[in-house]
């Protein structure tokens, strides 16, 4: 396993539609292991393959265990993920992105989704997610279609930059903004 460099938002690969995975090979499993290690090293809660430079439809999601967050404390690896159902109820929540360091915004997402795809062994999986975990799935699947979270924000007052702590005086931010909202 290895931590890979994270691709920044100005790179074209993050604007491409990623290719479906045709076969689960040892190289693909290495990619998945590296994605998990890279996500954890960056203290992210999700990562999509294009963020480590591979234009393939693979995502990993892992929200740290919290008894108030359904689906937390579980590592999800999904190959060729698809949202097959989404709740009509839309909720706003704070998101960040490992490819857009320092920026956060209020992003509207479906409150719950059902995701279908393959796990790392090539078996079909169907995951019903709600709340934060559903949000992360939607954020990561967007990456596979070249969509970044600021694209989902129409009101420019709903997105802001957090200055690094050592620089000047930090801007006031909502209390619920933490590095744990980076995907
Ligand atoms: Zn992201």
Structural class: alpha+beta
Number of helices: 2
At the fourth CATH level, what is the homologous superfamily? Peptide deformylase
> In this structure, how is the largest beta sheet organized?
5 strands, antiparallel
**Contiguous runs where pLDDT drops below 50 for at least 5 residues:** none
**Mean pLDDT value:** 93
CATH fold field value: Peptide Deformylase
- Radius of gyration equals 16 Å
CATH architecture classification: Alpha-Beta Complex
Q: Order of strands side by side in the largest beta sheet?
A: 1-2-3-6-7
Bound molecules: zinc ion
Which band does the percent of strand residues land in?
Answer: 25-35%
* Highest-level CATH class: Alpha Beta
Number of DSSP strands?
Answer: 8
Oligomeric form of this entry? single chain
H and E order = HEEEEEEEHE
Q: How would the global form be characterised?
A: globular
Q: Percent range for helical residues?
A: 10-25%
Distance, first to last CA: 20 Å
Number of domains: 1
Task: Provide an overview of this structure.
This protein is α+β, with helices and mostly antiparallel strands and 183 residues long. It is built from 2 helices and 8 strands, in the order αβββββββαβ. Strand 6 (112-118) and strand 7 (124-130) form a beta hairpin. The longest helix is centred in the N-terminal third of the chain and has 16 residues, at 26-41. It is globular. The model has no long low-confidence stretch (mean pLDDT 93). The structure holds zinc ion. Zinc ion (ZN) binds next to helix 2.
